[in-house]
Amino acid sequence: MCIFTPSRLLLALTLLAAPPALAAENTKPDVIVEQPLGEERPADRLNALFTQLKRERDPQAAEGIANRIRLEWSDSGSATVNLLMQWADKAIAEKRNAAAHDFLDQAIALKPTFVEGWNRRATLNYIAGDTRKAMADINRVLTLEPRHFGALAGMAAILTESGHDALALKAWEQFLTIYPADRNAQEQVQTLSEKLAGSRT
């Protein structure tokens, strides 16, 4: 799934080289020094992917980048939460929605900052026909990750279904600032723009 929050989160990782004096001290056998220079934090990987997604104009290449972003989002960093998410997915596939909801509630309780827990529950609430709860979860997703294009698409769909075309258009326009090559979003913007223009004549 997918509020149109215009702010964007940009995180920068600053790597400082050790001064020569410190480097010399680090050669002592009783000093253990971590060297994280070759590692990249998840937030930095996401930022780089979102930069690529914003610049990419080929829909197929953009979809590949979007899938890599989704993969980053799917890892909570907690083995327990990841397992709960797997159980929720299995329950949804088997149409055991009550069990899936319980698993997602547990995942959210264990890690409230995990965006995909809220996003998956928003989808489940939407499937169950509870758009009020779905929108509440979408709001939470976009508070945690304003660039969540899936949540923006979900919001736009709910707004369209409820007859709020102008708000749906804004959601799709926000989507396109993040993921400009998405053809469905482009078509939705064109359709809604024409519909709204026609209603004003």
Structure description:
With 201 residues, the protein is mainly alpha-helical. It contains 10 helices and no strands. It has helices at 20-25, 42-55, 59-74, 79-93, 97-110, 115-127, 131-144, 149-161, 165-178, 183-199. The longest helix has 17 residues, at 183-199. It is globular, with a radius of gyration of 21 Å. The two termini are 33 Å apart. The model is unreliable at 1-37 (pLDDT under 50).
Q: What's the short version?
A:
This protein is an all-alpha fold and 201 residues long. It is built from ten helices and no strands.
Write the layout of secondary structure elements.
Layout lengths: L19 H6 L16 H14 L3 H16 L4 H15 L3 H14 L4 H13 L3 H14 L4 H13 L3 H14 L4 H17 L2
Characterize the biggest β-sheet: none
Overall geometry: globular
What is the average of the pLDDT values? 85
Structural class: mainly alpha
Characteristics of this structure?
201 residues; mainly alpha; 10 helices; 0% strand; disordered N terminus
